[in-house]
Design brief:
This protein is mainly beta. It contains two helices and ten strands. It has a single domain (about 5-130), classed as Metal Binding Protein, Guanine Nucleotide Exchange Factor, Chain A. The strands form two sheets. Strands 6-7-8-9-4-3-10 form a seven-stranded mixed sheet, with no helix packed on it. Strands 1-2-5 form a three-stranded antiparallel sheet, with no helix packed on it.
Length: about 130
């Protein structure tokens, strides 16, 4: 990895599910307007598989799928919060909810709009986010 990454912790509301994601100091996140994200307020920080780990509560996750069943929406069975999931656009990585990170000190998050209502036309723009940087 050519850029410095810091493991940052996060989790659900009740604390049963915890995760870590290795993030650079500057992150570009997506605010998606699809039916799922608009209703839950999910702000996407997509990372490669190697830069994500569940640290507690994997056994406390429930899965929800719909439409193509590729995306694996994971929710804490206790509080219902979706802190991360396996996105359809990036099945080789994870999407972390920026709002579920514990600490933002030293982290700059720029949020851009993403047109998920027209997902089929726009999903390709996210594919590079789950790849390791050169």
């Amino acid at each position: 990895m050519s850029e410095a990454f810091v493991w940052r912790a996060g989790g659900c509301h009740c604390g049963e599910v915890r995760f870590e994601a290795a993030l650079p100091a500057h992150v570009l996140a997506q605010d998606c307007n699809c039916s799922m994200c608009a209703k839950t307020g999910f702000v996407h920080v997509i990372v490669p598989e190697s830069r994500f780990r569940v640290t507690r509560g994997a056994d406390r996750l429930a899965e929800y799928t719909f439409n193509t069943r590729v995306a694996k929406h994971l929710f804490c069975v206790e509080c219902g919060v979706k802190a991360f999931y396996r996105p359809r656009s990036n099945p080789d990585g994870w999407s972390v909810n920026a709002r579920c990170l514990d600490e933002a000190a030293g982290l700059t998050i720029d949020i851009e709009a993403f047109d998920g209502r027209n997902w089929e036309l726009n999903a390709h723009a996210l594919a590079h986010l789950s790849k390791e940087p050169a």
